[in-house]
Every structure is written in C-alpha cells, then in structure tokens.
C-alpha cells in the first residue's frame, strides 16, 4: 500500500503543471509526407469514374488515407471519383497528419478553376474563393456549404480550412469543390498578445517560470518550444487547469503558424 501511495504522490508532483511531461511527437518535423501521383479525369459530370493516387513516406507506419471527410483506407488510391476538387490526407501511426489540397478532377463537359485568396485574419476570416466554370451547360448556380444556390460565384470572409462549394449547371448536374483556403500571415504579436498569456497562465509557481521548466515569458524559450506550446494548448494538456479560452488557444496557434516571430 505504501508503495502505491508513493507512486501516486510522485505522479502528482510531476503532473501538477502541464500533465504528462513526456514530449509529444513533433508532427512538423517527424510526421508523414504525402505526394500526389496520377489524377484521372471523369468522363462527364454525371459519371463517377475519375481517380486520384497519392503516396506517403516518413512518419510512422501504418498509414491511413482519407478523401475529404470520408472513411479512412489503407490504400492511397481512390477510384470511382466524381468531378470536383478534393483534399486528400494521410495519418500515420502517431496520428500525425499531412495533406495535399485542392486536387482537381475535371470532366469533359464540366471544367472549372478557382482563384483562392489566403486568410490572414487570425480570428475572423477574410479568405476568398472565386469559381470560374468553362464548357458545360450554362447558366451556373453556386452554393457554399448547405446554403442556397445563387448566381454568385464569389465567396468572401472565409476562414482558413476546407470549404464545400457546389456548382450546378442548367441540366441540374452538380459538382462539389472541397476548396482549401490557406492560412496567411496574421501578424499576431508576441509582445502584445502571446507574452501576456504566458505570464498569466503558464509562468506560474512550479510551472514555466524558470524554476524547473523553461520560462515561457522569455521569447527565446517560447520560440524554441513553439510547436509543443501549440499542440499542448490545443489538446488542453497545458495548462492542466484548462484556464485558456478557445480564443487564446486560437491566438497561440496563429502566432506559431506565423513562424513564432518576435514582434
């Protein structure tokens, strides 16, 4: 009984700041790499016979491949694909993910292009997608997500990530474009936004105040641990008390995605 209690006390002491101190896998440096192979177009808008082939390397096997938000599969080859735009992703044995975005499968009677503007607003979203359709049977109508079809082919105020845009022609044949808006530089400030979060929520007694763990109020320490800070705040393992709001977690992610600048 004493041995069990002692182990419990030790575990508590070492987990009191941020949970398990075992460093998580850095997916940015140790994750998988996905490569786009052959893309075969569909015969027409109404025939699902296109295909996409991808391959993966690095990371930790086994790999699991996904087409948009569909079920995972062991193979990187997707057949019976409709015309459209797709996001193909892979997860490795460490659950690290990589993706290839905006993969276009065209159809002989329904070709399309997109002009994508990155989202450089951390919280609000200011990305834009303009869809242009060639061939087919005009006029065309467009829909974002589950919204109504209209003649507007410009979608503004989009956050970074994947957005489903449907395009329908005059014969009611439609294609779905899973368009990925990339994250631009948001300009999130270390001095005005990130350091105050480190001061109030991380640099506490027994935590990241320099006594036993790196002092995250110091830029160089925060910079070198940026990836870990992002992953641990997003999974809410740091700080253990869960004191960060979702907005603060998102702001930290923006700063890290910006390259963790000293601004």
Write the layout of secondary structure elements.
Layout: H1 2-15, H2 27-30, E1 32-40, E2 50-58, E3 64-67, E4 77-81, E5 84-91, E6 97-105, E7 111-117, E8 127-134, E9 141-144, E10 154-158, E11 161-168, E12 174-181, H3 190-202, H4 219-224, H5 226-234, H6 246-257
String of helices and strands: HHEEEEEEEEEEEEHHHH
Strand content: 25-35%
Can you give the mean pLDDT? 87
| Coarse morphology | elongated
What characterizes the major β-sheet? 6 strands, mixed
Radius of gyration: 23 Å
Number of DSSP-assigned strands: 12
Given as residue ranges, the uncertain stretches (5+ residues, pLDDT < 50) are: 1-16
- How helix-rich are the residues, as a percent range? 10-25%
For this entry, give a set of tags.
alpha+beta, 263 residues, three-stranded antiparallel beta sheet, elongated, single chain
Task: Explain the overall architecture.
The protein has helices spanning 2-15, 27-30, 190-202, 219-224, 226-234, 246-257, and strands spanning 32-40, 50-58, 64-67, 77-81, 84-91, 97-105, 111-117, 127-134, 141-144, 154-158, 161-168, 174-181. Helices cover 22% and strands 32% of the residues. It contains six helices and twelve strands. It is elongated. The protein has 263 residues and is an alpha+beta fold. Strand 5 (84-91) and strand 6 form a beta hairpin. The strands form three sheets. Strands 3, 5, 6, 9, 11 and 12 form a six-stranded mixed sheet that branches. Strands 1-2-4 form a three-stranded antiparallel sheet, with no helix packed on it. The protein starts with a helix and ends in a 6-residue tail after the last helix.
């Amino acid at each position: 009984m004493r041995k069990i209690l002692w182990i419990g006390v030790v575990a508590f002491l070492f987990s009191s700041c941020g949970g398990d101190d075992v460093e998580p896998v850095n997916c940015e440096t140790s994750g998988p790499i996905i490569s786009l192979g052959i893309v075969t177009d569909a015969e027409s808008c109404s025939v699902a016979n296109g295909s996409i082939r991808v391959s993966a390397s690095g990371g930790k096997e086994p790999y699991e491949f996904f087409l948009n938000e569909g079920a995972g599969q062991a193979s990187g080859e997707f057949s019976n694909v409709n015309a459209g735009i797709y996001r193909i992703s892979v997860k490795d044995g460490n659950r690290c993910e990589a993706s290839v975005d905006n993969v276009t499968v065209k159809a002989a009677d329904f070709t399309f292009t997109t002009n994508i503007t990155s989202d450089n607003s951390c919280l609000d979203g200011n990305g834009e997608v303009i869809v242009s359709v060639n061939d087919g049977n005009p006029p065309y109508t467009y829909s974002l997500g589950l919204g109504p079809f209209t003649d507007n082919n410009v979608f503004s105020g989009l956050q970074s990530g994947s957005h489903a845009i449907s395009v329908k022609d005059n014969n009611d044949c439609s294609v779905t474009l899973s368009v990925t808006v990339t994250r631009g530089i948001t300009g999130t400030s270390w001095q005005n936004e990130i350091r105050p979060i480190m001061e109030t929520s991380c640099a506490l007694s027994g935590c990241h105040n320099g006594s036993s763990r790196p002092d995250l109020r110091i830029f160089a320490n925060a910079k070198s641990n940026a990836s870990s800070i992002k992953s641990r705040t997003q999974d809410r393992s740091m700080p253990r008390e869960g004191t960060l709001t979702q907005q603060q977690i998102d702001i930290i992610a923006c700063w890290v995605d910006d390259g963790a600048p000293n601004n």
